[in-house]
Write a structure and sequence with these properties.
- This protein is an alpha/beta fold.
- It has 2 domains: 166 residues, Bordetella uptake gene, domain 1 (D-Maltodextrin-Binding Protein, domain 2, 3-Layer(aba) Sandwich); 99 residues, D-Maltodextrin-Binding Protein, domain 2 (3-Layer(aba) Sandwich).
- The chain is built from 11 helices and 10 strands.
- Helix 2 links the parallel strand 1 and strand 2.
- Helix 2 crosses helix 8.
- The longest helix has 27 residues.
- It binds aspartic acid.
- Aspartic acid binds next to helix 2, helix 6, helix 7 and strand 7.
- The site of aspartic acid (ASP) has 15 residues, from helix 2, helix 6, helix 7 and strand 7.
Amino acid sequence: MIRSLVRAGALLALAGSLAMPMAAQAQAYPTKPISLVVPFAAGGPTDVVARTLAAAMTRLLGQSVVVENTTGAGGTIAANRVAKAAPDGYTVLIHHNGMATAVGLYRKLAYNPQEDFEFVGQVADVPMTLLGRKTLPPNNLGELITYLRANRDKVTLANAGLGAVSHLCGMLFQKAIGVDLVTVPYKGTAPAMTDLLGGQVDVLCDQTTQTLPQIAAGTVKLYGVTAPSRIASLPNAPTLAESGLKDFQVVVWHGVYLPKGTPRPVIDRLNGALQAALKDPEVRRKLTELGAEIVPTEKQTPEALRGWLKAEIDRWTPIIRAAGAYAD
Ligand code: ASP
């Protein structure tokens, strides 16, 4: 009895001595470079948002925020990597709607998006654009639908992997027009866009954060935007809904996450830097120019992201399961 009391006392003392430096470390955070994990290829839409944020957060935190692209399986490899990383604030995830849609798409998900993370805050909302290769014959959405119905076995639809928003947009589009196309998955929109420009694939639905420069350069055909109303950066482009695909809407949202168990002072410090970065005039200019809308301050919080993720999981899981569109 006495021996076990002595052992318990020793354990408590040990825990105390470990807890002190950890708390002190959390207060001093960050003391070394931080990895910002992006689930898709470099040069793509998520990567653009991440690199814009990383540059501002590097200045604000006084430590380098280094973007790392961990690609594959529609973003789930990156999310799993961060879920299993040390909860010390040095491995951070930025992800989009895929954080919610993976729950429906993957029956064997190696992590739980709601349980295995700490939430930092939401970032920006980005509309998508439905594009064709420059030489694709149809010139508007009506013509595109007719063309796809007639050429369903030949036309290829690119996406950034099963669980990417391009996959989600493509899935909803095929369902809306009642056509099953041949889909070609990539590890991000950057390589998918390279092949669209090269004419190796025919159609791609993806975020304005990467597609606007190509649309402006006339290197792709634009069939419409997925936002609920026309967007300022493409005032002449009709929404898919106004062109006849009633209720067609996909808006891409972004969140920043940490591994579960990250100390509160670290979460708060990162959240402070995120909020300050989103007020930075250069960040605002760059994101706005690319069609992104920075979310209001009340959404840039851990609580708002947690609630939003839950709402998105509740919204998409039944839709994906009803479509039987599993990725595994
Ligand atoms: N836009 C991509 C997606 O469809 C991913 C990327 O950012 O490359 O999810």
